[in-house]
Amino acid sequence: MALFHRQLIPLVFASVAIIGCSLGQNQETRQHVGKSVPKISLVSLDTGDESLTLSGKITLLNFWGTWCPPCRQELPGLARLASRLTNEPRFQLIAVSCGGGNRDDLDQLRSETEAFLASTRIALSPWADPTGDTRLRFTKAFGFRAYPTTYLIGADQKILAIWTGYSPSVETQIAQSVARSLKQFPATGSLE
Question: Rounded distance, CA 50 to CA 118, Å?
């Protein structure tokens, strides 16, 4: 019986992750709109840089993993969106590559991420949360529970929208939300 439970528990967690992959934005995520974003501590996998500024920009913060099939489906669309907005100084995509656990080995994560991006020809600058502290703070603040999870953050560092999981319509939903947010955020860089 104990063996059955040890085999069943991973299946239950896998099922929750798969079910979560099609949730998108819902009432549970909408309740967090307008809340302040917790402290973010990330490392650039390209440069090792740890300085990251959210203030004054519309930020799309995406937590994903190379091991996550829905993440691999979603990421190309986010990269296309970021590419279309390359010349938009008021927007940034922060794609946080995550390993399967709470803490990530930075060298291994960098290697896996670079290999994945090269094989898929996705052009973006990935970030990492090697200590897991940022994910923990987002879990406490917003109930982060599935990959991929994407947060649209305003220039005032408040949540504008959250998407949990992947669905075929998510790329359009995110692009429309980013466009609306940029329209409300004047080119001077200050909020209306």
Answer: 23
